Amino acid sequence: MAxxxxxxxxxxGFIGSHLADALLARGARxxxxxxxTPQVHGDGGRPDYLAADVExxxxxxxxxxAVRRALSGVDAVVHxxxxxxxxxxxxxxxxxxxxNSVGTAVLLEALAESPVExxxxxxxxxIYGEGLYRDAAGAEVEPPERTRAQLERREWExxxxxxxxxxxxxxxxxxxxxxxxKYDQERACLVCGEAYGIPTVALRxxxxxxxxxxxxxxxxxxxxxxxxxxxxxxxxxxxxxxLQRRDFVxxxxxxxxFALALERDGADGLAVNVGSGxxxxxxxxxxxxxxATGKELAPEVTGExxxxxxxxxxxxxxxxxxxxxxxxxxxxxxGLAELAAWLEGQVAxxxxxxxxxxxxxxxxxx
Length: 366
Description:
Number of domains: 1
Order of helices and strands: EHEHEHEHHEEEHEHEEHEEEHEEHEHHH
C-alpha cells in the first residue's frame, strides 16, 4: 500500500526532488528535511526545481528537534540525507562521519520513539569496493583491493580476471570513508528496523545521473563533473586509463525504485541494488557527454589514480526485479539527451582543479 505522507531527508537535493515529484504524482503528501548546504545549494535558498507542493523543513538531520518536527504526522521515511563523494570523505573525515553515521543515528532514535510504517534508506554501490569478477575457469572471485604500489606502477587491471555484474551477495569492500559511512547507514537502518518493527529497505544506488545535479560541486557524480568542465569549455579529466566500468542509471529510474520500495513489501529487510543493468567505461561517458553538449573537446586521460577508487563495479539488478518489480525504463542515451537539454540553461563554477589540487596536496592522488 502506498504511504499517504512521506518525509524525505535530503529532500531538496538532486534525487530527493525527483522522488518528491514521483510521490506527489502518486497522490502522497511530501515533506522534505534539508539543511540546504552551500556546497550543493549555493545561496542556501529553496531550490526553484523543488515542487511547490513539497513542505520544506530547513534543518539538519543531526538536530534531534528538527528531526522530531519533520517526523510529525508522516507514515513513511526515505532517508537520503548524506555527504557524498569519495575523495572529499578521505580528508573531511569527521564531517562525513557526523553527517552520515551520526545523522542516521539521530533519525533512528526518533523513529524508535515514533515508528513509521516504512523506512527506505539510500545506500551505495561504493560499499562493494571492487565488483565481482570471474577467473579463467569461470569461478566467481571477490578480488582484494588494489594496493597503493599497484596504482603507483599503473597496474590498473586485475590480471586474469573478468568483471561481471555485481550481486548483493558480494562482500563489502570498504575502501573510503564515504563507503564506510554509507554501509553504516544501511546496516543501522536495517538493524533498527528489525528491532522496532519498522519494515525497512536499503537501496544500493549505482551511478545516478540526470537533471538538477549540483554542477558546481566537484565531488558530485562523475557525469555531472564532466558536464561542468564542458560548460566551461574545458576537457573532462579522466583518471587512470578511462577503461574502468560503471553502471549509470537515470534519476527517474531511481525515483521509481524508491516509490516501489515504499509501496511493496517484497524487499523488506533487504539491501537491493538499483542500477541500469548495463556498464559503460568512464571514457565512453566523457565522450558521450561531450557529444551531447556539442563540445568538440576530447577527454584528458590523466593516467593518475585516486586513493580509494576501484576499477570495475556494475549492477546485477535481478533482486530488484524479483522483489520490487523494478525495471529500468530510461535508456542511457535518452537520459543523456534530457540532461544535455537542461545543461543549455545552466551555469557551472568549475572547481575540479581546486578539488584535484586538494587531493594531490594530501597525497591522495598517485
